[in-house]
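Hey, quick one: can you model this chain's 3D structure?
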Amino acid sequence: MRPEGQLVFNNVALRLNAALAGFGLAYLPEDQVQTHLADGRLIRVLADWCPPFSGCHLYHPSRRQPTPAFALLVDALRYRD
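Sure thing. Here's the predicted structure for all 81 residues.
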């Protein structure tokens, strides 16, 4: 039985499964759908409206002395491969 109306998910995997089942469009992270795009199970639409994601940014006060745990987090994120 196909659902009537709009589907709403709070989980990427559920959105992906719904798109693969043909329930409509889904806005998903590219790294999670690469194989489905490559084998033709999914197609990209509205590519001009989806610029590449440059990554996350972390804003924090630079004048305060960071806790050791926060300093480790900043270093891990800054020098990630």
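One thing worth noting: The chain has a mean pLDDT of 86.
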